[in-house]
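Progress note, sequence design subtask.
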């Protein structure tokens, strides 16, 4: 395994060196920097992490910074009496990257066995085309067309279904996908006009995009590894069956995740009490950012159950610090296809006589000497007598950034705490509640370099639907430690190295268990990203 890792690192290093040598110097990327003649650092502390200027730029529909209009290097062509205009600079950007990934997994089921798996790969980590920019004084568009994406560090294994997985596999393959569409959001700024309200204080946003979370959950986040608390849902943490065994199609598209883009419509804006948007350039100015909207809650798919979700976010900023709150409510996160698939009877096959006994898939079936199943569980994970039962979800979160950067000390601490509750995840009438969050320390070594370390954690209350006829009794706990460093070789070439140690443990202990089911994995990535 060490030899494979060494070979993967060396190959990634060669790839990085080759791409760096062949890439021309560029002072401003991607399309926004070409349009306005700015550097990436104008909006980002590092690719993927917006600074205060970047936040105001986004809220303006990508046409102003700190409430002041940005003048394009080349004037737009007016085609609609000042309402519509065609950019004269190319509004397209291309982001791609390559590198090496590796991971080792140790699965320790509750029956006392141990299974180890490994994976290493040289990957095209990402390849996406972006169409972005203002189209006149009020409209703007931001669309992403991913052509290939590695999923090695998203939706990573968790839950009792993974920890108790007895599949005899020494090696596994990192997930990847070739989507054709992911994000397309359309802005209309200053809905009521600047005569009634200050600019950028009342805007509309419609389309498919990421929810306004405290820290980015899409590709624009700083770290390679996704935040656990944005990624997980109840079935990931409690299901004794792998969700992929009863979800039709891509399980990541069939169930709501905070980390995935959603079809939504919202109003948003910035409010400066006692001042104007231009005052936000002063660090001593207190100002607010707000978002209020509704969503299908079914990722990029059309609504799968007719239930519309509601969300809101409010954040205050002052002297480089921020404090925010976020809330999300869904009346129902499931659709009928999922409910039926998860409630189907599963079977164990006796090693003697080919007999079948009702039992969930992906769990180690146990038989006596005559081939009779030792346990009798009549249903799948969900209640077949309640095929139309609803599962509502509530998320409440608070976040804050403590930054010493305004005081010329290059450190900032990002914090997130979230409370989540699903009312009926297995349709047997038992609710599941969990809390979680993360704490990430960023060290801005120089304008071109940042190092970071993060601790993620999730703690769930014990979920037991067995008294109601279910098969699930678990108490999940999950955490990880992420450490990384990123360096800008040029404004449009970034090198990244990141390591992760991750643990899931089922804290519920049953009389038949020899120990708590546990999953541990370690892995890392080395990659180069390019944008132009």
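Output:
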């Amino acid at each position: 395994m060490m030899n494979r890792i060494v070979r993967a690192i060396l190959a990634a290093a060669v790839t990085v060196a080759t791409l760096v040598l062949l890439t021309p110097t560029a002072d401003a990327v991607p399309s926004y920097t070409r349009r306005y003649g700015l550097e990436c650092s104008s909006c980002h502390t590092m690719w993927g992490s917006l600074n205060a200027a970047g936040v105001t730029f986004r809220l303006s529909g990508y046409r102003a910074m700190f409430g002041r209009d940005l003048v394009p290097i080349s004037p737009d062509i007016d085609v609609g009496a000042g309402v519509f205009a065609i950019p004269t600079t190319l509004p397209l950007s291309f982001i791609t990257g390559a590198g090496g990934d590796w991971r080792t997994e140790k699965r320790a089921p509750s029956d006392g066995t141990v299974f180890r798996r490994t994976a290493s790969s040289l990957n095209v980590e990402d390849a996406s085309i972006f169409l972005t920019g203002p189209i006149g004084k009020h409209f703007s568009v931001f669309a992403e067309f991913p052509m290939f994406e590695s999923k090695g560090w998203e939706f990573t294994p968790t839950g009792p279904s993974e920890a108790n997985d007895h599949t005899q596999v020494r090696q596994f393959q990192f997930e990847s996908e070739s989507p054709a569409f992911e994000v397309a959001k359309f802005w209309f700024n200053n809905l009521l006009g600047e005569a009634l309200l200050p600019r950028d204080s009342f805007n509309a946003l419609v389309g498919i995009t990421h929810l306004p979370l405290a820290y980015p959950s899409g590709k624009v986040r700083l770290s390679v590894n996704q935040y656990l608390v944005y990624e997980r849902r109840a079935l990931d943490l409690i299901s004794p069956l792998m969700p992929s065994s009863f979800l039709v199609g891509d399980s990541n598209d069939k169930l709501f995740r905070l980390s995935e883009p959603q079809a939504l419509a919202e109003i948003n804006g910035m409010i400066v009490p006692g001042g104007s948007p231009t005052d936000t350039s002063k660090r001593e100015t207190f100002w607010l950012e707000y978002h209020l909207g509704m969503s299908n809650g079914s990722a990029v798919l059309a609504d799968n159950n007719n239930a519309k979700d509601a969300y809101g976010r409010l954040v205050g900023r002052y002297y480089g610090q921020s404090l925010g709150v976020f809330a999300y409510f869904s009346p129902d996160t499931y659709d009928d296809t999922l409910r039926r698939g998860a409630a189907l009877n599963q079977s164990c096959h006796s090693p003697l006589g080919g007999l079948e006994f009702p039992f969930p898939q992906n769990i180690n079936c146990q038989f006596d000497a005559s081939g009779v199943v030792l346990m009798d569980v009549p249903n799948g994970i969900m209640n077949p007598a309640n095929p139309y039962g609803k599962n509502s979800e509530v998320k409440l979160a608070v976040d804050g950034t403590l930054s010493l950067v305004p005081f010329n000390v290059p450190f900032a601490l990002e914090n997130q705490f979230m409370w989540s509750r699903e009312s009926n995840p297995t349709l047997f009438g038992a609710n599941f509640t969990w809390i979680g969050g993360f704490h990430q320390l960023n060290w801005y070594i120089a304008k071109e370099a940042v190092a970071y370390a993060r601790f993620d954690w999730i703690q769930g209350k014990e979920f037991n639907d067995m008294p109601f006829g279910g098969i699930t009794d678990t108490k999940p706990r999950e955490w990880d430690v992420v450490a990384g460093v990123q360096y800008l070789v040029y404004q449009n070439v970034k090198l990244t190295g990141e390591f992760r140690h991750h643990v899931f443990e089922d804290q519920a202990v049953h009389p038949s268990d020899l120990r708590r089911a546990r999953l541990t994995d370690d892995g890392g990535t080395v990659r180069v990203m390019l944008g132009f």
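Confidence is low (pLDDT under 50) at residues 5-29, 346-364, 372-379. Work on this subtask will continue into the next period as scheduled.
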